[in-house]
Design goal:
The complex is a heterodimer of chains A (212) and B (230). Chain A is α/β, with parallel strands linked by helices and 212 residues long. Chain A has helices at 11-18, 21-24, 46-52, 69-79, 84-97, 113-127, 143-158, 193-198, 200-207, and strands spanning 2-4, 35-36, 39-40, 53-56, 131-135, 162-166, 178-183, 186-192. Chain A has a single domain (2-207), classed as Rossmann fold, CATH 3.40.50.300. A 6-stranded mixed beta sheet of chain A has the order 4-5-6-1-7-8, sandwiched between helices. A two-stranded antiparallel ribbon of chain A has the order 2-3. Chain B has 230 residues and is α/β, with parallel strands linked by helices. Chain B has one domain (4-219): Rossmann fold (3-Layer(aba) Sandwich). Classes of the chains: A alpha/beta (212), B alpha/beta (230).
Chain lengths: 212, 230
């Protein structure tokens, strides 16, 4: 599913609510309930949440902290206490999946903007959570990177993962099943992507879609 | 003579063997909008950081307004070239949105009434008026992006470098930005857009320079030249 809406309408905040960050490390009052796979995010501890949902933040600098790309990706599987062979497997798998094997020895902090986004995504994919939250991962990627990520997301969807992506560039995520349009902190419309995109007047008025 | 001129500029980061940029020759004027495009990690951001002197080339020479860049202080470069970083968090530092926009002007000794007038103009244009007294780092990504752009534009630099200016912007804000940039370009403000946003580049750029693996792979050249295709 894709979440769209003008900047400042609450898309990222919605993600923070869904991934439990509001309760755990961000100020804010969360009213209502968020259920992940039947479990209430209020009641899950941070480690439990990590098994249910992985989030790629809008600014990858906020989530990269390891000395090398490989360490960054291995961090989550290590903390799941997987055997070393399985950790290796997962690291190699996601490096290959996103085409960033050449960066394995690099310091994540010194990569370019788009590369950082790919590494942050790789680290979350290595955790292999059932729900993925992606806050504008496409915006800093080149067209090859976008295609690669789109293919990975389509494959994950096929494997039964739930993917929620915040994006302004709806062409980059036109394969999404559902689109949710927000305005001023509220849900404006939610429906099948092709139905909403076909409503050109609505998309034009609310998102200036045609200009893009 | 070009406003910004790079001659055989090469660059590698210290202690790392790999060359990021190899023998870049580029001359940019103040009357064109140039897009720098290319794959992630191709050296686009590094190239623009060299142009404002925050990185020093390991080889070659950069001239700004006819003088070697190495002879300028960072402050002198900053008054001529405005730079919007890829990540707005690294350039926002004031206590409020209004201060952020007025910072450069206040420090250059502009009268408070004049600073206030400009602040009001940019708050209105980029629709940040309701956030006038808000702490910049509490804004959303798209709002921070607009603020970083507004704060740089408020200084009215001669030349602008914008690194991924449309990241975080919705289509409506992209249109506002495009209109504004085209307007100031017509007033003789040259600019570089580093961007992956192909529709935006297609709409805005008069010249497209493609960078790959640290080398210029193609340069559409100046509009009107025989080499210009697009």
């Amino acid at each position: 599913m894709v979440v769209a809406g003008l900047s400042g309408c609450g898309k990222s905040t919605l993600c923070f609510c869904l991934c439990g960050a509001i309760r755990h490390n961000r100020d804010g009052v969360l009213a209502g309930e968020v259920l992940l796979n039947g479990k209430n995010v209020r009641e899950l501890r941070a480690a439990g949440l990590a098994l249910e949902v992985g989030m790629v933040f809008q600014d990858p600098d906020t989530q990269l902290f390891s000395p090398t790309v490989e360490d960054e990706i291995a961090f989550a599987p290590e903390n799941l206490c997987l055997p070393p062979g399985r950790i290796r497997e997962r690291v190699e798998h996601v490096l290959d999946l996103l085409g960033i094997a050449a960066l394995r020895e690099a310091n994540p902090y010194r990569l370019s903007g788009g590369e950082k986004h790919l590494v942050a995504l790789a680290a979350v994919l290595a955790l292999d959570p059932p729900v993925l939250l992606l806050d504008e991962v496409m915006s800093s990627l080149d067209s090859a990177g976008r295609k690669k990520v789109a293919a990975v997301l389509e494959r994950l969807r096929g494997a039964g993962k739930t993917i929620i992506a915040v994006e302004h560039d709806l062409e980059a995520v036109d394969f999404a099943d559902r689109l949710m349009v927000m305005e001023k902190g509220a849900l404006l419309r939610y429906g099948r992507t092709e139905t909403l995109l076909a409503d050109r007047d609505f998309m034009g008025e609310k998102l200036w879609h045609s200009w893009n | 003579m070009a406003f910004l001129e790079l001659t055989r500029v090469s660059f590698s980061y210290p202690k790392r063997g790999r060359r990021v940029l190899t023998e870049i020759d580029l001359a940019l004027d103040r009357d064109e909008i140039t897009a720098i495009v290319g794959p992630n990690g191709g050296g686009k951001t590094t190239l623009t950081k060299l142009m404002i002197g925050v990185l020093q080339p390991s080889g070659g020479q950069i001239r700004l307004d006819g003088r070697p860049l190495a002879g300028y202080s960072l402050g002198e470069i900053g008054r001529r070239v405005g730079y919007v970083f890829q990540n707005p968090d690294v350039q926002l530092f004031c206590g409020t949105v209004a201060e952020e926009i007025g910072f450069g002007l206040t420090n250059r000794g502009y009268k408070p009434e004049m600073v206030e007038e400009r602040i009001q103009f940019y708050l209105d244009y980029f629709e940040l008026g309701v956030y006038r007294n808000v702490f910049p780092l509490h804004l959303s990504r798209g709002e921070k992006q607009r603020l970083a752009i507004a704060a740089v534009l408020a200084n009215e630099p001669l030349f602008l470098i914008l690194d991924e200016p449309t990241a975080g912007l919705d289509a409506y804000r992209k249109k506002l930005l495009a209109d504004y940039l085209q307007k100031i370009a017509r007033l003789g403000r040259g600019m570089i857009l580093v961007s992956h946003d192909e529709p935006f580049v297609g709409r805005m750029a008069e010249r497209v320079v493609a960078l790959k693996d640290g080398r210029i792979q193609s340069d559409s050249g100046r509009k009107g030249n025989a080499a210009y295709e697009a």
